[in-house]
Design the sequence.
């Protein structure tokens, strides 16, 4: 079945729930240099700092709740089903907790671990700092299942095909600076989709959106969902 609507979500949708955005004005993430906590090289240099950092992030996300934007996308999926694909750059589980099921985490998930010995990706909810054993192979070589700079995002073939085939492409709370996600509006445009941006500020997308709406995701996304459902 062709996916009719693709929604790409970024840090802006989760920020309203209290999730720290990837970079603050100083180029830091929760006080850390990105190179230290979001690269394979940083992990190789100081694995304890990296594991502790993501353990803290996992606990922080568990303490917040989905907001109206997450709920609205789940409501849309409950009506149109697989005609909607949500692609998120976020590593939190707020979409799932809101009820979305047709979802791709292109940058991985805080609630999964990745075994560097056997490539297993088990669901994970406790700390990794203590070097727990992999449930598949038994090796104590688990790391966060988060895509770091220099690593390949997940689901690229599936995402690209969905963007090519969709009728509507919507970007919510993304900067338009991180590729390959930043290129999806151009791809959708090239294949004839209507493109919509819902954001606090206009993104840096190289190709302009057909419709740009500025404001909080918790207001704009429910309004847009209501429009789609009224026309369905």
Sequence:
């Amino acid at each position: 079945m062709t996916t009719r609507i693709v929604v790409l979500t970024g840090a802006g949708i989760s920020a309203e729930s209290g999730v720290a955005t990837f970079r603050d004005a100083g180029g830091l993430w929760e006080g850390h240099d990105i190179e230290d906590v979001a690269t394979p090289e940083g992990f190789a240099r100081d694995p304890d700092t990296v594991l502790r950092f993501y353990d803290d992030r996992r606990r922080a996300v568990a303490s917040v709740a989905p907001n109206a934007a997450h709920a609205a996308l789940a409501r849309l999926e409950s009506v149109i089903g697989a005609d909607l694909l949500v692609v998120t750059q976020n590593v939190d589980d707020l979409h799932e907790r809101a009820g979305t099921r047709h979802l791709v985490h292109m940058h991985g998930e805080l609630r999964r671990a990745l075994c560097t010995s056997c490539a297993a990706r088990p669901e994970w909810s406790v700390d990794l700092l203590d070097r727990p054993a992999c449930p598949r192979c038994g090796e104590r070589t688990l790391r966060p299942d988060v895509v770091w700079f220099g690593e390949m995002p997940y689901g690229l073939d599936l995402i690209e095909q969905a963007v090519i085939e969709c009728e509507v492409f919507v970007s919510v709370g993304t900067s338009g600076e991180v590729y390959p996600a930043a290129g999806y509006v151009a791809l959708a445009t090239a294949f004839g989709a209507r493109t919509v941006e819902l954001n606090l500020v206009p993104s840096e997308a190289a190709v302009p959106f057909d419709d740009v709406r500025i404001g909080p995701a918790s207001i704009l996304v429910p309004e847009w969902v209501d429009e789609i459902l009224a026309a369905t």
About this structure: The longest strand covers residues 108-115. The beta strands are 5-9, 28-29, 32-33, 84-88, 103-105, 108-115, 142-146, 168-172, 194-199, 211-214.
